[in-house]
Amino acid sequence: MAATPTDLSAALVMTPVATADWLVVLPPAWCILAGAVLLMARKSLHLQGFLAVPALAVLVLLDALLLAHVAANGPVTMVMGRWLPPFGIAFTADLTGVLFALAGAVVALAGAVHALTDIDGSGRRYGFYPFLLLLMAGVSGAFLTGDIFNLYVWFEVLLISSFGLITLGSEPRQIDGAIKYAFLNLIATTLFLITTGYLYGIFGTLNMADIAAKAAAGRAELPLMTLAMLYLTAFGMKAAAFPVNFWLPASYHTPRIVVSALFAGLLTKVGIYALLRTLIMLFPVEREELSFVIALTGAATMLLGALGALGQNDIRRLLGYLVISGIGVMLAGLSLGSPGGTGGAIFYALHSMVVMTGLYMAAGLAGRLSGTFDLSRLGGLYARSALFSALSLVLFFAVSGLPPFSGFWPKVMVAKAAMDIGAWWLAAVVFLSGFLTTIAVGRVFLLAYWRPAGGALSAETIPASALLPLVALTALTAVFGLFPEALLSTIQLAAQGLADPRAYIGSVFPGGN
Amino acid sequence: MEVPFVLLIGLFFSAAVYLMLSKFLVRVLLGVVLLGNAVNLLIFTNGRILREVPPIIPAGHDVPQALTANPLPQALILTAIVISFSFFAFLLVLVYRAYQDLGTDNGNEMRLAEPENDPLPPTGY
C-alpha cells in the first residue's frame, strides 16, 4: 500500500519550541532529576547538602529567568508530546504562576541551607533532601501547569513528598500529627478529584485555557456553581481555611523545624494559588455569587488564627495559627475579586511564604538556644544575641502587617479594595486580626527575648548556615516593604492577567479556538 | 446503564462517609479506600457506559459514527487508581506504626501532638 503523506499539522504543533520557552517545563523537570540523583547518593550523607543547595539555587535561577521571559513576552505555553492543545497536556506559565514558583524556590533554597545544620545524619539518611526536591517538583509543577488534571497530579506529588518529610524522625508525636495531616489532606485532594471529574463531564476538556473560554461562552446552561463551590471547599481545605483548618494546628508543630518552615511557606499557598486560578480565572461570575461566603470564611479564618495564636504556649503552635490568620487575609482578597483584592491576595501570599518560613526558622533557633519552645520557660534571648533578636523583631512586625515591612502593603490593598465596595466590616476584620497578631507576637518578644533568662542558655554560637537564610528572608521582607513599587506593578499585571485571561488563552491557542 | 451506576456510586459515597466518621483509624482508612473507588466510578460513569460499541472510525469519516465510550476518563482513573493505591499503602503503614507507638487506634485518644491540658501562655513576668 502506498504511503499517503499525512498532514501532521492537523494534530501536532509543527513549529519547534523556542529555546526560551523550554524554561516552562524546566523547573519541575530539574527538581525531579536532582531528586533522583540525591536519592541515588543517599548513602553519602555529606554529599546530600552539597548537591541539594546548588540544585535549588539553579531552580531559583530558572524561575527568575522564566519570570523575566514571561514579564517581557506574556504567558508562555508548551504542550507535551507536541499534541495540539487542548489534547496535549499544556504547561502554561503566566505572571501569577511564575511569581509563586519563584517565591517557592527562594523559600526552598533558604530551607535547604538552614537544614545543613538543622537536619542531622539520620534525617539525611531517611531522605530529607530527595523529599525536598520532589516536594519542589510538585510545587513548581502545580504553579506552572495549564491542565487541571495535571494540577491534581502535582498536588499528589507534593503531598506524598510532604508525608515523607512530616514523618522524618518518627517520634510518637510526629506520627500523631502525621495521621491527622495525611487523612485530612487526602480527603481534600479526593474532593478536588471529584470536582475535576464533574468538570470533565461538563466541559469535555481539562485544559484551563479551554475551560476558561468555554465557561465564558456557555455560562447560562452549565452547572458551574457546583464546580465553583466544590473547588472552594477542596482548595479551602488545602489552604487551611476556617472551618476545615484542623489538620494544620494538629500537625505543623510536630516535624523538624525546617520541615515546618517549608510547609508553612509552601503548602497552604499552593491551595491559595489553586483557588485564584479556578475562582478568578475559570469561574469569575460564580466567584462573584460566592463572594459573601468567601468573605465570611476569610474573616472567620483571620480571627480564628489570631485568637488561636493568643492562646498558645508553644511558639511553634502559635506560628501555625499565624499561618491560618494569613490565609484569611488572602481569602478576603479573593472574595473581593477586584484588581486590588486579587493583587492583595497574591502579594500577601508571596509575603507570607517568605515571612512564615523565616519565623519558623527563628523559632527553631530560639528553641535551639533555650532548649524549649514553651513561652513560660523561654527568656533572655535579647541578652544572648541582639542580632538574632533584631531579625526576629523584623519578622514579627512583618507578620503583623506593620510598616515598613512587606506585610503592610497587601493588607492595605485588601482593606482598600474592601472599603471601595463598602465592605467596611471586612476591612475592620483585617485590621483587628493584625492588631491581635501584634499582641500575640509582641508577647513572644516580651517573654522570650526581653524577659531575663530563667536558666542558663546554650553557649553554642549560631552557625552561619543557620543564620544566613534567616538574614536573607528578613532582608527580602524589608526590601519589598521599603521598595514595593516594582513588585506591586508586576502583581497588578498578574492580577489583570487572571481576571482577563485573553493573553493566557491566546498563548495556548495561538490561532484562536 | 448509567442509573444503576449512579446508585452504586451514591452507596459507595455514603458508606465511605459513614466509615470516615468513625474514631477508629482502621475504619477511617477503609472509608478513604471506598471514597477513592467511589470517585473512580464517578469519573468512569462520566465517560458514558455503553456495551459493545467498538471505537472504530470508518474510512472517510473524521469522527466515530456510533456513540462510543470516551476513553479519556478511563485514562484519568488509571492515574487516580495508582495514586490512591500508593496513598493507601502509606496510610496503612502509618496507621500500623501509630498503633505500635501510641498504643491505640482510637483517634480521640491520640493527644500527643495536642495535649489535652496544654497550659496557657504566662500573662506576666
Architecture overview:
The complex is a heterodimer of chains A (513) and B (125). With 513 residues, chain A is mostly helical. Chain A has one domain. Chain A has helices at 26-40, 45-73, 95-118, 121-125, 128-144, 148-166, 172-203, 208-217, 224-238, 247-251, 257-282, 284-310, 315-336, 339-370, 381-384, 386-400, 408-420, 424-450, 464-482, 485-499, 502-508, and strands spanning 76-79, 90-93. Chain A has a two-stranded antiparallel sheet. Chain B has a single domain (2-51, 68-105), classed as Orthogonal Bundle (Helix Hairpins). Helix content of chain B is 58%, strand content 0%. Chain B has helices at residues 2-20, 25-46, 71-102. In chain B, helix 1 packs antiparallel against helix 2 (25-46) and helix 2 packs antiparallel against helix 3 (71-102). The chains are: A mainly alpha (513), B mainly alpha (125).
- How far apart the termini of chain A lie comes to 35 Å
Could you say how many structural domains of chain B there are in total? 1
Q: Largest beta sheet of chain A, briefly?
A: 2 strands, antiparallel
Order of SSEs of chain A: HHEEHHHHHHHHHHHHHHHHHHH
Q: Got a strand count of chain B? A: 0
Neighbour order of strands in the largest sheet of chain A: 1-2
CATH class division of chain B: Mainly Alpha
**What is the typical, i.e. mean, pLDDT of chain B?**
89
Topology, number of strands of chain A: 2
Percentage beta strand of chain B: under 5%
Distance between the termini of chain B: 72 Å
Mean pLDDT of chain A: 92
Largest sheet of chain B: none
- Helical segment tally of chain B? 3
Contiguous runs where pLDDT drops below 50 for at least 5 residues of chain B: none
Work out the helix count of chain A: 21
Summarize the structure.
The complex is a heterodimer of chains A (513) and B (125). With 513 residues, chain A is an all-alpha fold. Chain A has 21 helices and two strands.
